[in-house]
Amino acid sequence: MSNRPPKVPFVNFSLQHQPIQSQIAEALRKIIQEGDFILGQALAEFETAFAAASGVKYGVGVACGTDAIALGLQACGINPGDEIIIPANTFIATAIAVLQAKAIPILVDCDPETALIDLTAAETAVTSKTKAIIPVHLYGQMVSPRQLLDFANRHDLIIFEDAAQAHLAEREGYRAGSIGKAAAFSFYPSKNLGSFGDGGMLITNDAQLAEKMRTLRNYGAPSKYLHTEIGTNSRLDNLQAAVLNVKLPYLEKWNRDRTDAAQHYNTLLAPLKHKGIVPIANHSSSGHIYHLYVIKITEESSIDRNTLQEKLAQDGIQTGIHYPLPCHLQPAYQNLGNRGDFPRAETLCQQILSLPMYPGLSNTQIEQVVRAIVLSLNC
Asked: How far is residue 284's CA from residue 171's CA, in Å, rounded to a whole number?
């Protein structure tokens, strides 16, 4: 393999950071000068601003998105042994967080067009022990709020959104994180709103839930040295919050850039549908914020996914696979199901390929990617 820089990288952080570098440097300088590192002013400001941008009242910053789910479920009153419905087609952190909350993840299959949780399949997964559903707003597209609310109301379930990939995504008049009792976000660096390390947040309209979450993240202590809950140490530190405060005002513009790039991909890839190149369906119009742009390489294609990925790499185009194994086929989590239990998720993981996607990705670069796909199919 060549050591030359890629023609089209999978992600390019510098395009976002260079124009605001001086703002970030000043925000960090202020934190360092004041020594305000933990549970400080920058965090409080970011919690308020991000919650408001998402259409809810309260935000509680934690160390990572996984903790936002695990501690959030505890704050919602989930007890050991409670069953929680999650999609088989998600990053393993969703399942890990449920297990950390001492609950039982119950997997269901996905919609093969959108890759989102199939709520029809979820109907058969509900039991007397089911207490919640975690819809994962995957790739930047939300699960239908209307369908989700209907489902939860029918079965008297808590909706706890995994919105780690859906910062300011919209669908049916809702913003991600505003549908259910609470929602979890991640600020991992590659997210649409990313910090310079790990970070996460729970958002909610429930004041008591938010207060309990603040207690749980801080050793279970509502005040210093008074521990009323069995909590942990999971706090979004002020340095990361300061970076996120600088970046948040640009997020809507960056999301629009992603949507514009996706539309250009869609136009150029449309003629390849009959050749087995099918983008994951967008049922959210401009509300899809394209954390990832994912295509399927179906049986109609002249080459399989792995071969296409190799050919694109040889042409200097970086790609990803999100995700190569559904949760129940991961070696450590085989107790969640058997091969064949979730056939659509299992098929999808063999077909999907994530193409370069980031704010500042040019039309010329997108055309390079699609041209390379066409040449690979015709070789």
From this structure: 6
